[in-house]
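In the current project phase, we have settled on a layout for protein records. A sample record is reproduced below.
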Amino acid sequence: MDLLIAANTVTQPNSDIAPATGTPGWATDGDPTTNTQATQAPAWHYNMMMAEMLAIVKAAGITPSNTDWSQVLKAMQTIFAPAQRGVAPYSATLAQLIGGYPKYAVVADASGAFWVSQSDENMTVPGADGATWGSLFAGLATQDWADDRYQESLGFTPVQQGGGAGQGSNKVILGWAKDGAGLRYQIDGEDMGCLAPLSSFPLRALSKITESTTWIVPENVFRVHVRLCGGGGGGGAGYNANTAGGGGGAGGCGEGLYDVSPGQQVIITIGAGGAGATGTTDAGAGGTTSFGTFLTATGGGGGQSASNSTISIASGGYVGGSVGGVVFGGQPGYPASYNPSGGGYFSGPGGASLFGGGGSETTKQGSSPTFGFGGGGSGGANQNGGGAGSSGIVVLEY
């Protein structure tokens, strides 16, 4: 986009500006039956809207061009792209655009250090002299603090047999159980069982499973902490021009702590991501993820497709659920939208799960999630299909 090239244009200092007085209102085409006159669109109103949009384009570092009619969209994608990464890198461009970072905003610098803003409207650069940013980890434990608080390693195990106040002379023997059940003890030759069962010990291993398989419980493992999510739903399609599909819903998520036995076999099923829609058919739902009969999470719903003969702005898919543990919901798919001031019909973004993001909104072909698991695909728009959802995942700690 760019300024007007036509006869009788003027430079900015000579352009019309908004009147200092008057009541703001909405435009009308007029109504002869009530003798209502049509609104005259003044040049200053055109100047105001152009200045607003050009400010966005230039803030993104884009040179205005009257041959590219998507520069406002590209500028917004450039400016807000870092925000999709969770803790975004510091951006001087974004600071200028929003009038400075707010108090308590968290950013990362080029070296990977994290900073928290200590003032509103913060235009300073993290790490610079006089900057009103503080280290996110200031006040946490340091090596000097630990040295003052804890005793150094003695180089031996300080255990003494009897002799303490109120203690008898009985012989106590401690040892690890042969079956791996935990710390076992006996007194004067009498077996007293497990002093500390293995189930009371902290979890020690972590496994990420992204494909269906049979998990065999390892030796000395008697409990497992399970977290999982179903596959994300696919995005709906925009069948005709000026239509847009809804985003797919995120897969359901759940977790639980379960007792198991070494050598036990547990069937793990990973739910596939739902297929993106084409034509007027709604997108596919995500598949169900399960950890045996212990815990199950259903997939997210597929996004609705749209056509001029039915509906032009389609709805997003539902978020999946979970059975057998603690349920954690993700996001449903977002509905499509229409922006009359620029861009036209936008597809609905896919819903994000607890394990990953969803596909991004678009005016073209829908996209699949760019990271993680269980996210919904975004819808397609203007004769384009939707993106596929991402598959589920199972995470085990034991």
